[in-house]
Write a structure and sequence with these properties.
single chain, alpha/beta, six-stranded parallel β-sheet, about 20% strand, globular
Length: about 130
């Protein structure tokens, strides 16, 4: 069974609610979830070593916030050796980072798909509209 580590910014917020539904409806995987806010990383309030040990146990990393992904990838280079999924929930900052290590981008708008497609392989970008 694939072990997937899903990392959200804040439990209980909108992105977490969307991300949690993915976990709920794919029970064929073994999920573990973490809450890691990028401002906490900046302030040094995050125990990087404990995150590193959880990441080592995962087959796939499912990042739900772009900034958390970029900061952790900088602090924990081993992330770049894992399968990485990054969901872009909005159209901001799509190209602000080098996402060469990301195996699959998930976007919620056609515009985001088009922007990422200019730089990255379209086969690695999935357009999945959010439904409310």
């Amino acid at each position: 069974m694939k072990k997937i580590l899903q990392i959200v910014d804040i439990f209980g917020w909108a992105i977490d609610e969307l991300a949690g539904s993915v976990v709920e409806y794919t029970p064929q995987y073994e999920w573990k979830r973490l809450e890691v806010h990028p401002k906490a990383i900046q302030r040094g309030e995050v125990d990087i070593e404990s995150i590193r040990s959880v990441i080592k146990q995962a087959d796939i990393l499912d990042f739900q916030y772009w900034r958390t992904c970029s900061q952790l990838a900088e602090k924990i280079p081993e992330i770049k050796t894992k399968k990485v999924i990054l969901t872009h929930h909005n159209e901001k900052n799509l190209l602000s980072e080098n996402w060469d290590f990301v195996d699959q981008h998930i976007v919620c708008t056609q515009r985001s798909f088009d922007i990422l497609s200019e730089k990255y392989n379209k086969n690695n970008i999935s357009l999945i509209h959010n439904s409310f």
